[in-house]
Amino acid sequence: MTGHIGLIETFGIFRGLPKDVIGELAGMAVTRTIGKDQLLFQKGDEADGLYCVLSGRVRISVQSENGKEIILNIMQPGEVFGEIALMDGTVRSADASGQEQADLLLIRRRDFMALVDRSSVLARHMIDLLCRRIRWISSQVEDTAFLALSARLAKRLLLMREAVAPVEGAVTIRISQSEMGQMTGVSREAVNKVLQYWRREGWIDLAKGRISLLDEDALRDVAETPTD
Questions:
Q1: What are the DSSP E strand ranges found in 5-130?
Q2: 228 residues of the chain, pLDDT tens digit each
Q3: CA 45/CA 51 separation, integer angstroms
Q4: How far is residue 196's CA from residue 120's CA, in Å, rounded to a whole number?
Q5: Count of CB atoms situated within 10 Å of the CB of 137
Q6: In angstroms, rounded to a whole number, what is the distance separating the alpha carbons of residues 133 and 136?
Q7: Smallest Cα–Cα separation from 188: which of 199, 179, 196?
Q8: Percent helix, percent strand, percent coil in the chain, to nearest 5
Q9: How distant is the alpha carbon of residue 15 from its chain centre?
Q10: Which DSSP category does 52 fall into?
Q11: Per-residue 3-state assignment (H helix, E strand, C coil) for 113-170
Q12: What's the pTM?
């Protein structure tokens, strides 16, 4: 449990909670490991709990009737997922699988909701989190409808960088150009065209499966520009 307290405190959604609540959450947490492309849960499954990513990456996606996969998000270490079904007790709204081998913390729904019933602080905390998620979903719909591809890519990278610690002044995000395309609904070639321009401008650096952000101010300017 002591080790889990330290892990729980690293996740942003739990910051600000009282120590006793953190301690109870840590006491509930169990570890799980999934392999690359291993399915954690499917859309329509009953919610078993909230997942926290310790290492590796987890792909959140949906599939069309013809089998085409759309990536909604790739969860990085320090991020959590499954909170919506956790709170309302309904089924999963998307699939979750290992983008690579990933170590996770699981807090089971029955234990978590029992703690919510006892702790008004945790209940208010989760209401705030769900409101932020709803605003994020709304902004994604607006971005797809109104923003140019370059602005959508810039916003997505800046959002993902929040879960990544900088190394020697630069933030490197582990994501491929194909994954970026699946997340934004365009081809890899379209993504590459934008990223290569940013690389020539000195705003980013590219390596296989990685994008390093060198000039975040420039990317913020792009994210705030609705047209190319």
A1: 30-34, 39-41, 49-55, 58-63, 69-75, 80-81, 95-98, 102-108
A2: 455 777 787 787 788 888 999 999 999 999 999 999 999 999 999 988 999 999 999 999 998 778 778 888 899 888 889 888 888 888 898 999 999 999 999 999 999 999 999 999 999 888 888 888 788 777 777 676 677 899 999 988 988 887 665 555 678 888 999 988 888 878 899 999 999 999 999 999 999 999 999 999 999 999 887 665
A3: 15
A4: 49
A5: 12
A6: 5
A7: 179
A8: 45, 25, 30
A9: 17
A10: E
A11: HHHHHHCHHHHHHHHHHHHHHHHHHHHHHHHHHHCCHHHHHHHHHHHHHCCCCCECCE
A12: 0.76
SS3 for 77?
coil
Q: Is 175 helix (H, G, I), strand (E, B) or coil?
A: coil
Q: Quick one: tokens of 94?
A: 């998307």
